[in-house]
TrEMBL record:
Alphabetical UniProt keywords: ATP-binding, Nucleotide-binding
Protein name as catalogued: ATP-binding protein
GO MF terms, alphabetically ordered: ATP binding
PANTHER family: SLR6007 PROTEIN, UNCHARACTERIZED PROTEIN YJGR-RELATED
SUPFAM superfamilies reported for this sequence: P-loop containing nucleoside triphosphate hydrolases
Gene3D superfamilies: 1.10.8.730, P-loop containing nucleotide triphosphate hydrolases
InterPro entries in the cross-refs: P-loop_NTPase, T4SS_component
Coiled-coil portions: none
Domain of life, per lineage: Bacteria
Amino acid sequence: MRDPLSVLTDAFTSFVFGKVETTRLPVRTSTGQAQAVYLPTAAPGLGDSGVIIGREVYSGKGYIYDPFQLYGQQLPAPHWLVLGESGNGKSALEKTYVLRQLRFRDRQVVVLDAQGEDGVGEWNLIAQELGITPIRLDPMVANDSGIRLNPLDPSITTTGQLALLRTIIEVAMGHGLDERSGFALKVAHAYVTEHKTDRQPILTDIVEQLRHPEAESAEAMNVDIDDVRAWGLDVALVLDRLVDGDLRGMFDGPTTVGIDLDAPLIVFDLSHIDRNSIAMPILMAIVGVWLEHTWIRPDRKKRIFLVEEAWHIINSPFVAQLFQRLLKFGRRLGLSFVAVVHHLSDVVDGAAAKEAAAILKMASTRTIYAQKADEARNTGRVLGLPRWAVEIIPTLTPGIAVWDVNGNVQVVKHLITEKERPLVYTDRAMTESSVVDPELEWETEQRAILIEQQMNGTSQSTVA
């Protein structure tokens, strides 16, 4: 029973200041009974089938993600956008994700590696570990022993070849082809395809035909031969860059023999190409169409196409349209497109804003690492993130990201095992070594092993 003085004090306080808030009496209980008094709560995960990413920060649960397992149930599309400033763990996430996906026997990955370290792409160590030779596109050595990809490879349909030639020219010129230039290119391609049957047609054949068109090409449209030659001059000059200019040697010959399109991992090393030059979107266009016609097949394999510095794709309207078609087409054949971008403003404010919006819309999974406050607000507005997620993005530490999987938003800490560490961290250890907290290494590794064992127990039918 309360003493009279306390009752009098409370009454006086209530009279002067109004009714005071009641105080909840403490509950004395054992640790075994506390779980019934204070029930733990956590947002639902994405299931236990797929590859390990890490753990949810707030609940501590293991975080498992796989677009192929979730597609059709929780995901309308298997494509994935990764955002964040340098030094926060994007590179580590990409590499461990690919390594873990490759443990499944029905997975195959293509990586466009635009980052260079020590004269090679940053995926070189992983390729070596898997016994794979990267396809290194380098104009400095292409004429000697470099890799060639032929836009006129017979494995690409004639329609695909012509579409690729148009895309290359439009990217280089910065505008679409007019009807006359398009006609000159079409008749040159048709003539070369019809008459070069003893070997693979090459770009030199197209350039030569544009410079010296056949009379029958003009007669077919009842125009003068000099007009056809004039219409094709600008086209010939653009293609000449691939034949005898700064991009020579990479695309002006038959496709290099021995490129293994059945390897579990195919790495296109673009690290020797200037990322800010027109050469990069041209390369993206050629590689994209070449893959579309030679790599994506209806063989029930699940394929991942990972593109670093992806704003080079989305910033060019013509290349963006090409990849937009590839994404729509590939969804039927089990293709997951992974685009890695530093800032969303690089693409949504670029020359291809309309195409960028369409590609971003197809990415049902978005992973956002730390960004500055202004960039985080812009990202949240474009992607429709909840307010709480936008507010914490600037505060995220390396290795922790906001994951939005078709509206299921979680904060996830990426875990890296000791076996993966030397493959994931190369010279970037100076900036990304803090992705894993040293004090939690043993704990996180044990969690990863436990989750992996659980995953193997539920997915034995698909694991190699």
